[in-house]
Amino acid sequence: MKQIVRNILTGAALVAVVAACTETKAPEAELTASGLNPEAFVDTIGGKPTALYTLKNANGVEVCLTNLGARIVSLMVPDRDGKLTDVVLGFDNVAQYADSKNTPSDYGASIGRYANRIANAQITIDGVDYPLVANDGTNCLHGGPTGWQYAIYDAEQVDAKTIKFTIVSPDGDNGFPGEVTAVTTYTLTDDNALDITWEATTTKETVINQTNHAYFNLNGDFTRVGTNMELYVNADYFTPSDVIYIPTGEIKSVEGTPFDFRVARPLDEIINDTTFDQIKNAGGVDHNFCLNTYDHDTNRGDDSQVAASLYSPETGILLEVFTNEPGIQVYSGNFQGKGAGADAPHKLGLIYPTQVSVCLESQKYPDTPHHPEWPTANVKPDETYRSHCVYKFSVK
User: Fold this and answer.
1) Residue 263 lies inside a defined structural domain of this protein
2) Residue numbers annotated as active site
3) Which of 76, 80, 83, 385 is the Cys-Cys partner for 379 at CB 3.0 to 4.6 Å?
């Protein structure tokens, strides 16, 4: 009898051991090609869910985005050897993107309601003054301290290569008039272009100026400065700015200045030329260029012509920018590695140095509401705002 009991107990123990060894574990999340964990982007912020979304084309190019700020998080494109390379800076989790105090960032964001600066944080429409929320000294920058880059958009993934992000900005948002419904659409094409369209309508006349704020490094190494990249800008003129980055109102020729990028050249050649007051004041390039692709007689931009390009001699990756906007802001990452969040780990745990990247932001000119002679940013209730930008990648 004791042997029978012993056998029963031994058998039960064996069953328990087998059950423990074969217990089903929850599958781990599959990482993206850029090494992102989608679970790190699943959260609820301000009562709205966040997530990571992926677009892929027939060539294996991958774009990862989040609905927090309708942001590009990673962008994997092939180099001259066919190796997929991430070419945009950012974080590997949604919490850091959302922490505007400790890790302030516009990485890859859809900026709104007004990209760039508005002087004295004030606009006037039809004789009515609207004080805006200042967040850049006395100026309003990128729509104010709670600009759309920190809002949670509603996301609709249309198919494997297209996603739409929608936001409703209330009347009075950061001081701007009108309730605005804005839609940002990203489409990844099979010729390795990321096509971005912004559309918006408003209940009151307002100003809208949207852009994408991707920080590009085409070298495939985010631990070194990126000023070896070669910049081309299809612009005969630029808008000089004062010491607080507000346009002086002048439209100045690039001829004979370090800002003549009508022939592509490395940023290394000019980035430290402090004899040029514009570079000295900005600590590099942080300026609007008046694009030759824009027709001021018809107020239309030709988005079939190259507005600007960036090239890495290390990887052979070429980025070409197309837009219907009158201007493009070239920013050489002069504030990176400085201030709040400078020592925060980014994707792959990296710490970014100053001037590791270049931004190419299609836009209306900065502070346009105070310069009625420039292409207008005003949008009326019976109009639809539409801005278009394409980032196209190839190798040479």
Assistant:
1) yes
2) 213, 361
3) 385
